[in-house]
Design goal:
mainly beta, 10-stranded mixed β-sheet, 6-stranded parallel beta barrel, 22 strands, globular
């Protein structure tokens, strides 16, 4: 691994020199390091760039690390990763992507992840995205996530993108079986002229399935964000979509939550709130000795936790 990769890994996956568990480190489109465990096997795909990860049934408490780093301009990295999670397993998957520019050419990573969870399995999926480098090259990350949840399985996705990515389109599609649950917590901050688009599409096919989509974002300067979600209730189910955004400077946000109830006992709800930081919040913190800029940053940090 080169030094840029090591620095990016510290940010996106808390790398301290080694990973404890199964891992695959991707650097500029190639595998830089890999290790499987007794219960988690990582193999290269045979028909496309990427990985096949098999997690044995009833595996408990183990972690899988699959970070990807692009460390120079002129790289357009595309990877397909498939996760097969066995019945009754309960694991954490730590992904993340760092894109670093060194020149005027674009640097891009596009990770296409597919999750297939078997009955009663649970996964916590953590993902951080960041862009670094002071060169003119555009930094782009376009993740696609496809989810198939089996009976009474649960996938919790905790995703963060807080700086440096010029363009991103984040696409998540899910199909939920009986009693399955999908929870997504997204946090995004854009600066300058950065653009971020989020697109959720979830089908609640199984009886008593449920989804919670929660997006919090801050659009600063001249940046633009777009949020679109579709929850399709096709059985007795519950669905909730929440989009909260703060505007700073000339930032712009467009939010379009959509609910499609195709069953009389589908209980679906959406919430959306967009606005600037309230003046009384700034004033209260300034009475404690903070400057206006410090007060604003403190409010934003708490909002994005």
């Amino acid at each position: 691994m080169n030094e840029t990769t090591k620095e990016l890994l510290k940010i996106i996956s808390d790398f301290d020199g080694e990973f404890k568990g199964a891992y695959n480190i991707r650097e500029d489109g190639q595998c830089a390091a890999r290790e499987s465990t007794e219960n988690i096997k990582i193999e290269s795909k045979k028909d496309a760039p990427g990985l096949v990860i098999h997690i044995k049934p009833h595996t408990k408490g183990e972690k899988v690390y699959i970070p990807a780093c692009v460390t120079k301009s002129g790289i357009d990295d595309l990877v397909y990763n498939d996760f097969y999670v066995g019945e009754g397993a309960d694991v954490t998957i730590i992904a993340g992507c760092g894109v670093h520019t060194t020149g005027v050419e674009e640097a891009r990573h596009n990770g296409i992840h597919r999750f297939i969870l078997q009955k009663d399995s649970k996964v916590l999926y953590q993902e951080k995205h960041i862009g670094t480098g002071k060169q003119e090259g555009i930094r782009r990350i376009d993740p696609v996530t496809d989810v198939e949840l089996g009976e009474n399985s649960k996938l919790t996705m905790d995703t963060v993108q807080l700086s440096g990515v010029d363009f991103t389109t984040r696409t998540t599609r899910g199909v939920l079986g009986e009693g399955a649950r999908l929870i997504i917590k997204e946090r995004i901050m854009t600066d300058g002229k950065e653009q971020a688009k989020t697109d959720f599409y979830v089908e609640l096919k199984g009886e008593n399935s449920g989804v919670d989509l929660m997006s919090r974002s801050v659009a600063r300067d001249e940046s633009y964000q777009e949020y679109h979600s579709v929850i399709k209730g096709m059985n007795v189910c519950t669905g909730h979509s929440e989009c909260d955004a703060i505007l700073v400077g000339n930032g712009k946000v467009s939010a379009s939550p959509q609910l499609d109830a195709e069953h009389p006992d589908a209980a679906l709800i959406h919430e959306a709130a967009i606005g600037k930081i309230a003046g009384e919040q700034i004033l209260k913190l300034r009475t404690l000795g903070l400057t206006e800029e410090e007060a604003e940053q403190k409010i934003i940090s708490g909002f994005l936790k």
